[in-house]
Each structure stands twice: as structure tokens, then as C-alpha cells.
Amino acid sequence: xxTTLHLEGKRGVALLHDPLLNKGTAFDEAERDAxxxxxxxxxxxxxxxxxxxxxxxxxxxxxxxxEKYIYLISLQxxxxxxxYRLVMQNLDEMMPIIYTPTVGLACQKYGHIxxxxxxxxxxxxxxxxxxxxxxxxxxxxxxxIVITDGERILGLGDLGANGMGIPVGKLSLYTACAGIPPAxxxxxxxxxxxxxxxxxxxxxxxxxxxxxxxxxEYDELVDEFVQAAQxxxxxxxxxxxxxxxxxxxxxxxxYRDQACTxxxxxxxxxxxxxxGLLTSERLTGIPLAQQKILFLGxxxxxxxxxDLIVEALKLQGIPExxxxxxxxxxxxxxxxxxSRTDLVEHKLRxxxxxxxxxxxxxxxxxxxxxxxxxxxGMPQTFTEPIVRAMAKLNKRPVIFALSNPTxxxxxxxxxCYTWTDGRGIFASGSPFAxxxxxxxxxxxxxxxxxxxxxxxxxxxIASESTRVxxxxxxxxxxxxxxxxxxxxxxxxxxxxxxxxxxxxxxAIATEVAEVAFKRGLTxxxxxxxxKAHVEDTMFDPTYPDYV
Length: 547
Known about the structure:
Layout: H1 4-7, H2 12-16, H3 29-34, H4 48-61, H5 65-78, H6 80-89, H7 91-98, H8 102-108, H9 110-113, E1 120-123, H10 130-135, E2 144-148, H11 165-178, E3 185-191, H12 197-200, H13 216-232, E4 237-240, H14 245-255, E5 261-263, H15 264-284, E6 293-296, H16 300-315, H17 320-324, E7 327-331, E8 334-335, H18 345-348, H19 360-367, E9 371-374, H20 384-393, E10 398-401, H21 413-419, E11 425-428, E12 435-437, E13 440-442, E14 445-446, H22 453-463, H23 470-482, H24 486-490, H25 501-518, H26 530-536
């Protein structure tokens, strides 16, 4: 990222208050003289390594996850380069703070811990003015927009404008995990009200304190945003995040062929779950084409995973109707079957002929699945009888408890390993500590979307693709599964070490960009060395020399 252009006109206190340019005490003597900083900083010049030591010491002094979150956000607001270097060098420790599970608590408390605005807010009162609002953003070369309306934040439900913590956190991961420059990232809150009575009664709530907007007026506001974003930021990817089921599927269906857009809850979750299933083949010996997958939860995450599995099987030559028969769903009213008359549209394609069943345990015993995937947002729903039934049916039962945050997980890692006598292949959405059972230590895999969406976004940006396709997510899943080492598998982990995330994102981005070029989705000429081209676009959080 070049700095000379951005420095034009920035001197003195204005420079210190710009988090993208600020180096704090690391401004050297020549820079202090040339940029009007003399006297505005303590006299001793520090290196970035010394600053890193200081902020890490202060971070680790904080006693609660929420205090750590507030500290990191405050650092990000004053020095982005130092923030990203800190996070990237301590990703295992800090990802659970800047994203799941702590970001969920931060969203619940957002109005009470608010320090400084980040991103843009668009409300129903801004109808006809959305383009002007986007033009208020100070950075012209936006390449990735994450937008939410706050209706389904993780497994916590409707948090209204408090949901801004999700786009902010998601974009932090785009930079930390895939090197997308911070100036190219734009978080947006589409504040259309909330039906959360607690928030509406909270005098410190920062959003529009009225019932959630529905119907044509909502659709018109979303459409105005999409059209304006394409005009103001023509090279930007628009990621829809944490929209409710009633809007998520239809907005994706409406815009996926009109704009460069995707829904991470539907497609990113699908990609990381498919990667876990592909990796599990190496432990179970059962190829994807012979697996039967039972889902608890038939919302956007579950159906999205099912759709991508079907896409993967179709690419293997399996007819679509046969592929769909390998995915079964249980929702709040029981097994999703053809005879039910209460199914919404997105469930119909996975409604198979079968006798009705009221409980998940009944479905497990009748269908005999090879894998059980939880995306319900309902904690402790993978009970001991259910997990033991899976262990009885399978030599290596696959148990994915993917609901976020940790408090919403369908079962814990310890429960899975204990109830399967250590034979379970476990993954979760939020992190669990290693578990020792019968003298063997298992390191549970985290099926975190951050393995997928940063690399997909980077690949789309680097290729200037005009669309984001299911094939890209399938390719991302294959690449991710291929990066799991034998040592990972010995530890019981079906995803790569999180500390390899930049390597993972680069590999995924290169393959995603390849798809864009092969499918004619870009006007760019394909670089001779595509991987090097992608790598050249990645942000490096070391300080530049300004003088």
C-alpha cells in the first residue's frame, strides 16, 4: 500500500490521529522534523517491536475477554499497522477476542462500550440519500464491504444496530488473515430497527429505537444500497452478513447474478464445513459420495452447506437428485420430509420421502448417518444418547457442533470424545481447548469461516472478478482440505493450524482467482504468475518510511 499519496496534507496532530498512517513513538527524528511532529511525541524513538512488547504486556494484563476486546479495538482506532501485527503474530490467542466468541458479547454490550464510530450507518430515514452517505466515506478504493442488518447475530438473535461489531470484526479478519489493506475495507450497518425489547428499552442503545422494518420499504432500501455501492465502489465485493433467514436466501438469490456479492453465513459456512467433510474422508475411509449427512438446523447455514455438498457431488458426476438424498435435515418440528405442509421454500429441496420423525435421536437411529452437523444455535442438543448412537453406527463418527458462540455449541469437544470413546471426529464453530481422554490428547478442529471467506475475498479482489460463484467456494474447500497435514490428523485436527492462515488464504485466493479467469468473470488479463500477483496485493503491517 503506497503512502506518499495518502500523506499529502497530513501533518502534525492530524497525522497522529489517522490510524492508517500513525506510527506513534516509531516516527524517527527525520520524520518528526519533516512532518511537524517535533514535541508532539515523547522524545525517545521506539521500534515497532518495542511497541509490540508494550501493547502485548498491556493486553495480557486485562482480566476479562471483554476488556481485552475493548483494548484491541482502541489500539485499532489509533494505530492499524501495530494492531494487525499484534493480531497476526498472536492469532490463536486473539482471534477468539476480535471475533467469536467474544465479539458476540461485545455486540450485546455495544452501546455501553462504544468509544468511536467505525464504518457507515444507513437507516430508513436515508432513503434517497444512500449514494451521498457512501460518498462520505474517506477512502475511494473500497474493495470489500461487509453489511449486516443485525437481525441474526451469531446465535444471539436480533441485536439491531449493536450488530455493527460483526462487520468490524469480520473485516479485521480479512486484513489479518488475507492481507486485504484496511483502507479497502468498509463495514456498514443497515439499521432498520430491532424487535429486541431489551434494546428498545435501553437508553444507551445507539440504533433506531423502533420496530424492525419489513416488506417493500425494506427491499427498496437494500436495493438502493446495492445500486449505490456498485456506482461509488465499482470494484467492491459486497458480503451480506448475519441477516435473518427470511431475508438472507432471497437477497442472495436476487443479487448474486447482478452484483459481486455473497453471503458468508450461507456460502462461507458451507465452504469450511465441506472442507471438514473432505478431510474426514482420510480418517473414516468413506468418500463424500458415500456419506449420509444429517443436519440439526435448517436455516441459512445448514441449507447453504447442503447446497454446496450437492454442488460438489454434481462436479463428481453424481446426478443432483441423488446428491440431495445424501443430505437430511431436522428442524424445530422434526425431520424435514415431503409430507410436511409447514416448510418454507428453502427447505423444500431437501424434503425427502420418509415417515415423519419428531426427534433428532429418532432420525439418527432411522437414517444411520455418517456425519452429524449442528447449525441450530441451540446448545447441548447433541445429547449423550444421540452422540453414543452415532458412535454405535460408525467406527469414526463425524460430529460437527458449529453453532456460535461457544455457549451455543450443540455439544462440547469433551462430550464428543467422551461419548464416542475417543473415536469422534469433532469440529466446532468457536474454539475448544484440547481434551485428554484415556491418555490420548485430542486437539479439536475449529470449523471457523475465517479459513474460507478471507481467501475467497482476496481471490475475487485480486482477479477483479465481477461475480462470486459456488464453484469458488467448492474450490476453496478443496484447497483447505488439501492443506491439512498428517500431523494435524494425528492431533485429531481436521483443519490446518490457525497460524498458517495467511498461507491458507493465499492458496485459496490463487485458486479462486483461477476460477474467475477460467470462467471469464473478469476483464483483467491473467498474470503469468498468478500466485505472485495475489501475494503482491497483500497488506504488510510493518511501518513504511515517510521521509
